């Protein structure tokens, strides 16, 4: 299939490469001419503008927007709505607030356009192993674009037998559902990361000077992280990136421990509050990130290392 990709950051560039690897034609555009040239060298078709992207695609067109949530996505989708024609589809694969999807889908529908929201998980590791895709929008449009989702998912080009969930992609509901599910996914992620981080801090301080000498345990936490990866009930991809970071430096000296938070964690908690749903662990994990920007500890360094390992994220630069 043909598809346009707007935004060639860590995720957009890797999504494009995976699509091309599976035989799809990708027309790419980004504010960085260097990045566009780099993707063109990998086989993508370069476009100098949004209008050029639309011009190079054959109707019914599909344009994937992979930009930061907020103004960048808002402006880009607004411009595309004026350039695309009836029957074309805008795919928002970023971490958009799900209620914005409802508003944008309604506006696009008035112009005869389709809107698909795709919660995309996999980070920098997804280029090789595939992405988990949580998709919201019209069922028929999702079905038409299925080859794109199949290629991006861990299933690759393997045809689905029954539900597509085992392949790593799923049409989860109408507009907004994809990003709603991804929002909760990231809220859970916060909790999981916090649990690992606190556990490793307890291990790291088992030989601390504050512990009675007779009770001190000189533990090799890098090797403990590694053994947990093999047969343990707590093994996971988050543990994989943690073990890799600790293997490089068990003290994580290169990390300050100032942990940022993205919109999804806050939105998950806000939704829980609005609906009176108790979410104690997720809320505590979010508050721990706030605290890390004032007084970081080893657990915060572990979280920073995880975020860098799976998503290429840097550390927070200031209070918020």
Can you offer a commentary on this structure?
There is one protein chain. With 320 residues, this protein is an alpha/beta fold. It contains 14 helices and 8 strands. It has helices spanning 10-21, 33-41, 50-56, 71-83, 98-109, 126-129, 139-144, 146-152, 177-204, 221-228, 237-248, 263-274, 280-292, 298-311; strands at 2-6, 25-29, 45-46, 62-65, 89-92, 114-121, 132-136, 169-173. The longest helix is centred in the middle third of the chain and has 28 residues, at 177-204.
Set out the fold topology.
Layout: E1 2-6, H1 10-21, E2 25-29, H2 33-41, E3 45-46, H3 50-56, E4 62-65, H4 71-83, E5 89-92, H5 98-109, E6 114-121, H6 126-129, E7 132-136, H7 139-144, H8 146-152, E8 169-173, H9 177-204, H10 221-228, H11 237-248, H12 263-274, H13 280-292, H14 298-311
Helix pairs in contact: 9-12, 9-13, 9-14, 10-11, 11-14
């Amino acid at each position: 299939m043909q598809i346009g990709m707007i935004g060639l950051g860590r995720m957009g560039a890797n999504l494009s490469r995976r699509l091309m690897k599976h035989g799809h034609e990708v027309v790419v555009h980004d504010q960085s001419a260097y990045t566009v040239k780099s993707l063109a060298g990998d086989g993508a078709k370069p476009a100098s503008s949004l209008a050029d992207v639309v011009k190079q695609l054959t109707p019914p067109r599909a344009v994937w927007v992979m930009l930061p949530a907020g103004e960048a996505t808002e402006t880009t989708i607004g411009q595309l709505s004026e350039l695309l024609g009836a029957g074309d589809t805008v795919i928002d694969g970023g971490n958009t607030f799900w209620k914005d999807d409802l508003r944008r889908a309604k506006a696009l529908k008035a112009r005869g356009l389709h809107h698909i929201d795709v919660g995309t998980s996999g980070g920098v590791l997804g280029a090789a192993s595939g992405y988990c895709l949580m998709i919201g929008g019209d069922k028929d449009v999702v079905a038409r674009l299925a080859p794109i989702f199949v290629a991006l998912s861990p299933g690759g080009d393997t045809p689905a037998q029954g539900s597509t969930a085992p392949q790593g992609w799923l049409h989860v509901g109408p507009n907004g559902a994809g990003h709603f599910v991804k929002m909760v996914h990231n809220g859970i992620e916060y909790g999981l990361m916090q649990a690992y981080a606190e556990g490793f801090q307890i291990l790291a301080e088992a030989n601390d000077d504050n512990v009675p000498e007779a009770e001190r345990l000189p533990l090799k936490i890098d090797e403990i992280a590694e053994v947990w990866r093999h047969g343990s009930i707590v093994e996971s991809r988050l543990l994989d990136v943690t073990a890799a970071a600790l293997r490089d430096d068990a003290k994580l000296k290169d990390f300050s421990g100032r942990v940022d938070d993205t919109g999804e964690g806050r939105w998950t908690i806000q939704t829980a509050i609005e609906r009176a749903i108790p979410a104690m662990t997720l809320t505590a994990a979010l508050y721990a990130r706030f605290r890390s920007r004032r007084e970081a500890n080893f657990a915060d360094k572990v979280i920073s290392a995880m975020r860098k390992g799976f998503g290429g994220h840097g550390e927070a630069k200031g209070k918020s």
